[in-house]
Design a protein that fits this description.
Its cofactor is Zn(2+). One of its GO terms (cellular component) is nucleoplasm. The protein has six helices and six strands, in the order ββββαααβααβα. The chain is α+β, with helices and mostly antiparallel strands. It folds into two domains: 74 residues, Methylated DNA-protein cysteine methyltransferase domain (Double Stranded RNA Binding Domain, 2-Layer Sandwich), CATH 3.30.160; 93 residues, Arc Repressor Mutant, subunit A. Helix 3 crosses helix 5 and helix 4 crosses helix 5.
Length: 189
């Protein structure tokens, strides 16, 4: 239960499951925004970055709030027609972490706005962008607590040595997402 800002009634959370090329992605949210995107833990990569799986909502479609509709539309585009993600609205977020003013929130917003599809930054570069070049460790913490992965693209943050670093969905998923973006970007180029 997530308390709403006014301290009034908690949000009425709805849950949606999106079947994606990387497995089932669980999304929760309310009328006010998306609360969380839960990625599947992958132990095996789907074969070929051009997975044949179409993205579709397999549970919860009948009572989606607007933010959830926008979220699933955005994710579907991300996997299936990445060129269009730039033109789609990013859903409103309603996770407590993104309501409070904090360095973590600053970092997540910076990442969302400044690091585009097919790009990658190091923890330190992201700390710089967010306004505190010495906070690379804090950036790592912010990435770990990111409630909206993929849309807030924490998979694009890698170690300065070029190593992919950690990821909530596991490093296989991180590598898959990065190679998916790279391939799609080359196709568009």
């Amino acid at each position: 239960q997530v308390k709403s800002k006014q301290g009034g009634s908690p949000c009425k959370e709805k849950h949606v499951v999106l079947l994606s090329p990387v497995g089932k992605i669980e999304i929760s949210g309310c009328e006010a925004g998306v609360h969380e995107i839960k990625l599947p833990k992958m132990s095996v990569l789907p074969s070929g970055a051009e997975s044949s799986v179409a993205c579709e909502v397999c549970e919860g479609a009948e009572e989606m709030t607007e933010p959830l509709q926008q979220c699933t539309a955005w994710l579907r585009a991300y996997f299936c027609e990445p060129a269009t993600t730039g033109t789609l609205p990013v859903p409103a977020f309603h996770h407590p972490l993104l309501q409070r003013d904090s360095f973590t929130r600053q970092v997540l917003w910076t990442l969302l706005n400044d690091v585009k599809f097919g790009e990658a930054v190091s923890y330190k570069q992201l700390a710089d962008l967010a306004g505190n070049s010495r906070a690379a460790r804090a950036v790592g913490g912010a990435m770990r607590s990111n409630p909206i992965p993929i849309i807030i693209p924490c998979h694009r943050v890698i170690r300065s040595g070029g190593d992919t670093g950690n990821y909530g969905g596991g490093h296989l998923l991180k590598e898959w997402l990065l190679s998916h973006e790279k391939l799609q970007k080359e196709k568009l180029a």
